[in-house]
Each structure stands twice: as structure tokens, then as C-alpha cells.
Amino acid sequence: MKAAVYHGVLDIGIEDVPEPKIEPGAVIMRVHACGICGSDIHSYQRGPRGGRRDLIPGHEFSGDIVEVGAGITGVKKGDRVVAMSGRACGECYWCKLGEITRCSKLTMVGLGIPGAFAEYVLVPNFSLRLYAAKLPSNLTHEEGATAEPVSVGWHAVTQVQPQKDDSVVVIGAGFIGLAIIQILKSIGVNQVIASGHREARLRLAKESGADLVIDGAKEDVVPIVKEVTGGKGADIVFEVAGTEPAFRQAVQIVRKGGKIDVVGLYGQPFPLSPSAFGGDVSVINCGLRWDLPGAVDLMKKGSVRTKPLISHQFSLSEVKEAFDTANKAPDAVKVIVKI
User: Fold this and answer.
1) Can you list the alpha helix ranges (DSSP code H) found in the chain?
2) Residues 6+ positions from 314 with CB-CB distance below 8 Å
3) Residue 47's CB: how many other CB atoms inside 10 A?
């Protein structure tokens, strides 16, 4: 089968690789669409994890089931599905609770085991309970490929339980930030403030329902948030940009007793004194938690609309161009590879 394989830093190409073989507790999917995640771009910029040059990336995908392994129920060949999972040790405290995403030895699809920038992908630990969902007829495969990042946003929101009267700031207007904005408005949060640095994304933030959009490249976010919140600061801040300045900004704008949900992925560590967190601030890491059925339900109902957020589409043979676009194009939001 054809698959995209990392060759090195800023180098990815198409190769012929063996098709996956079915195993118990797994399914094989014929991939139709796969999205490029920020973590994919990190690997593209610096080289894949562990220096591997044979890894097939891709963990935001949808397709049709072509083989069903022993022990799998609820799906059959031909079903349209979205999925995400990985291999866990099966022996640790978290695995015994069924929380495989918390396993310290977890290796995920596209991030250690062969991913979905390929014609076929093996999905281990396939579970319709959390890690997979059937794709409704009113959603395309391209939209289905965005369900995984929507599920990240949905998990982030459910973590902090925002109330309708809360003032909520979303720092970073990439795909997940935009999904979070839509989720917040769908549950009735009255004041949602978004900040970012790219014109195309800021426009989408407004279209996604943000009540106030701040261009962080031109304006100082901190005094603006303080002013519109009556001086107290934001009740909840979602830090989705994954940069040191964005995190420090979150610390400055959250109110005493407020919450910061760290959703962004950081390319480099940075020092930060615990004394920076005054006023009993709670800092929560979004972590790896998927609720794909919940995400697909939001999309099915129209609470989250991802079609407007798909900025570019490429074929598998154009995967190098797709990664370069996601890496550099100022108007890139979600880049999809159709397979």
C-alpha cells in the first residue's frame, strides 16, 4: 500500500509499505481522510520521535472498516468510522481501570506505531465507548477526520466546567481553539474572548461565536481582558497556543481563584516560579483524553461546525506540500490529506 513516511527533518515522502495485519481487539480501516496535527508539525520540524525515519504519521482520521478482529462488537465491515487509540502495557494501574491514555508506556497510532497517512491503518484497542465512533451520514469523511481534535477541545471544556456567567478567554485561534469557542457558545457561556495572531484565524474566531476577538500581534491582551471583566480577570483561560508568552499571558489575565486549562503543546520547556500563581489559581493539563462519540455527537447536531475550519485539502501524493502548507501558510487552520 502507499503511505507517507518521515525521511528526516522537513522531509516526508510516499513509499510502498506492507499492509497491516488484523489482530484481536483491533480493526483495520481503509483511510479516506487524515488531518495534520500540531504534533505532526513538531515532528516534521525537528524530526520524528526517537529519530525514527520509518514512521507513518497521522492520528486524526476517518474511513471505512475493512477487517474486524476477534472480540470487537458493535461494528462491521463497511461501517464509516472515526477512531484513535494506541498500544498500552495492559498491566499498570491505569490500564486495569481501562484508562489506557494514562498508561506511561502508551504508544499511539501515528505517534510511535504506524499511522493513517496511508491507504490502510490498524487501530488497536478499538472501542466505541471512547476511542471510536460511527460517522453519521450528514458528516463527510473530511469532517470526520477533525473529530479527534474536536474531542480534545470537548475534554478540555468538560474538565473545567464553565458556567454561563463565566468570562472565558481562549488564547490561540488554531483549530482546537476555534472548536473550544464553538463548544463554549453551544453550552451557553455568555462572554467568550479569543486572542490570536493570524488574520484568517481571528476572522474564524468571530464566526465561531467569540464575543470579543483580540489581535495579539497588535494589541496587549492583558489590559483589554481586565477592562472587559471589570478588573477581576477571566474566570477560565484556555491556553491553546502552546508558547511561553501565551502561558505567561494566561497567568496574568486569570482571576484569583480562576482556572487555566493548558491545551497547547509546548515545543520547548521554560522556567516558571510557583510564586507566579497568586490567588489560588488552578492549573490543569488537558492531557490525552478522547471522547470521540461525544465529539461526533456535537458535530452531528451542528454544535461544532468543522467544515469552515478545513482550510486546505491535498491528495496523499501531495503530502509534502500538505505538511509545508500546515507548517508555513499563514491562512492554514486544518490541513486535510484525502486518501
Assistant:
1) 38-46, 93-96, 141-144, 147-160, 175-186, 199-207, 221-228, 244-253, 292-301, 319-328
2) 321, 322, 325, 335, 336, 337, 338
3) 17
Name the strand (E) or helix (H) holding 194: strand 191-196
Task: Report the distance separating Cα 202 and Cα 225, nearest Å.
Answer: 16
pTM recorded for the entire structure:
0.95
CB 83 within 8 A of CB 26: no
Q: Which of 202, 234, 229 is nearest to 218 (CA)?
A: 202
Contact 113, 86 (CB under 8 A): yes
Separation of alpha carbons 271 and 109, rounded Å: 31
DSSP state of 111: B
Residue owning grid cell 490525552: 288
d(CA 173, CA 239): 10
Q: Using one digit for the tens of pLDDT, what is the confidence trace for 265-294? A: 887 788 877 777 777 899 998 877 778 999
pLDDT at residue 49, rounded to an integer: 65
Residue 165: how many other CB atoms lie within 10 Å:
10
Domain ranges of the chain: 2-146+306-338, 151-285
- Which of these, 151, 144, 149, lies nearest to 65 by C-alpha position? 144
State how far the Cα of 196 lies from the Cα of 137, in Å rounded to an integer.
34
Q: Other CB atoms closer than 10 Å to residue 278's CB: what's the count?
A: 9
- φ, ψ dihedrals at 177, nearest 5°: -60, -40
Class assignment of domain 2-146+306-338?
alpha beta
- Write down the CATH superfamily of domain 151-285: NAD(P)-binding Rossmann-like Domain (3.40.50.720)
